[in-house]
Automatic annotation (TrEMBL):
EC number: 2.7.2.1
Family: Belongs to the acetokinase family.
Subunit structure: Homodimer.
The keyword Transferase is assigned to this record: yes
NCBIfam families per the UniProt record, alphabetical: ackA
Gene name per UniProt: ackA
Name of the protein in its database record: Acetate kinase
Gene Ontology biological process terms, A to Z: acetate metabolic process; acetyl-CoA biosynthetic process
GO molecular function, one term: ATP binding
SUPFAM superfamilies: Actin-like ATPase domain (SSF53067)
């Protein structure tokens, strides 16, 4: 069985074709700048080793982009299938499922209606996700589509974890609460760590650290708490997002600078975080280069980021009454040896003994970064969100 995984953004579309008989990716790529100037198509055939690298191709809308993807997958030179009949099902990443869904679901008209109803909770993501589903249903009407939610894995949280201390009617009438995101990554990583530990009832803290970053506490395979909130703005400091901030600080900045609601939203989501403090870039690699060059604001941003991650680790160890393992994943979590070391410094009280030498080695795959006698294990785990989507699609359509 072959599953096509789609991650549709407002002007982009990532895709991956997975053979579920062995869970191997056959081909993957991305359509960028859809509907705007100079659209770019990148594609890699992992069977033949061929690729199309940043080719400029007209893509006026998502329908044209998906049609291009399907034609490329069938292409005699670069393709991996002889026809679309070899695609058995399509799995879609959808950011927000609200309270409707605590698991992935096969798409029907009611699912589309529910997704449109909660679109206001993720205005930058859900409309684009829904558009990708609708286009795929139109182009391949006889194929089943499955939606896999970023929020679903976190729906095991108890009310004391997901409720905000706002008037209760804001929850009942407006569904204002913590939902959490990056759920597919947290699910994959926590399950992988549980297997490495040989312990299904493990207490695991997953640190998904990238330009967008979130932390989760997973106990017995269920999320106890997670750092992102009603939107991805909450939690730790990120590439361009503030993370946890006193709401009154935002009101104060709005008043003093004469900003509108949209402008303060943009300021907090796209101009803050590492970019806001460092001032030159939101990329962690640029930040580390700035530190090496002696930039004090780069050092401040780095310290703030690591400090906030460490705070969440301590809080989540308390929430679970202990911790068996801490896992780092995402672009920074998988590649950042220095931030991993800085974050783990001072966690000896948990029984954690960090192997600094092993941490500095560039080893691909999943790697244990704690010493053999460490009470709390530390791992670097390569996340596989597309594989989670493919697995759920296979499970629901096979």
């Amino acid at each position: 069985m072959k599953v096509l995984v789609i991650n549709s953004g407002s002007s982009s579309l990532k895709f991956e074709l997975v053979d579920m008989t062995n869970e191997k990716t056959l081909a993957k790529g991305i359509c960028e700048r859809i509907g705007i100037a100079d659209p770019i198509f990148t594609y890699k055939n992992l069977v033949k080793g061929t690729k199309i690298d940043k080719q400029q191709v007209p893509m006026e809308d998502h329908s044209v982009a998906i049609d291009l993807v399907l034609k490329t997958l069938q292409d005699k030179e670069n393709g991996v299938i002889s026809g679309v009949d070899e695609i058995d099902a399509i799995g879609h990443r959808v950011v927000h499922g609200g309270e409707y869904y605590d698991d992935s679901v096969v798409v029907d008209d009611q699912v589309i209606k529910n997704l449109e109803e909660v679109a206001a909770l993720a205005p930058l993501h859900n409309p684009a996700n829904i558009m990708g589903i609708k286009v795929m249903r139109k182009l391949l009407p006889d194929k089943k589509n499955v939606v896999v939610f970023d929020t679903a894995f976190h729906q095991s949280m108890k009310p004391e974890a997901y409720m905000y201390a706002l008037p209760y009617e804001d929850y009942k009438e407006l569904k204002v609460r913590k939902y959490g995101f990056h759920g597919t990554s947290h699910k994959y990583v926590s399950e992988t760590v549980a297997e490495l530990l040989g312990k299904k009832d493990a207490k695991i803290i997953v640190c998904h650290l990238g330009n967008g970053a979130s932390i989760s506490a997973v106990k017995n395979g269920k999320v106890v708490d997670t750092s992102m909130g009603m939107t991805p703005l909450a939690g730790i400091m990120m590439g361009t997002r503030t993370g946890d901030t006193d709401p009154a600080a935002a009101f104060y900045v709005m008043e003093k600078r004469g900003l509108s609601l949209k402008e303060i939203d943009t300021r907090m989501n796209k101009k803050s975080g590492i970019l806001g403090v460092y001032g030159k870039s939101s990329d962690f690699r640029d930040l580390e280069e700035g530190m090496e060059a002696g930039d004090e604001r780069a050092k401040l941003a780095y310290d703030m980021f690591c400090y906030r991650v460490k705070l969440y680790i301590g809080a989540y160890a308390a929430a679970m009454d202990g911790v068996d393992a801490i896992a780092f994943t995402g672009g920074i979590g998988e590649n950042g040896a220095d931030p991993r070391e800085t974050i783990c410094e001072g966690l000896g009280y948990l029984g954690l003994k960090f192997d600094n030498a092993k941490n500095k080695e560039r080893i691909s795959g999943n790697v244990e970064l704690s010493t053999p006698d460490s009470k709390v294990k530390v791992y670097k785990i390569e996340t596989a969100e597309e594989l989670v989507i493919a697995r759920d699609t296979y499970r629901l359509t096979k």
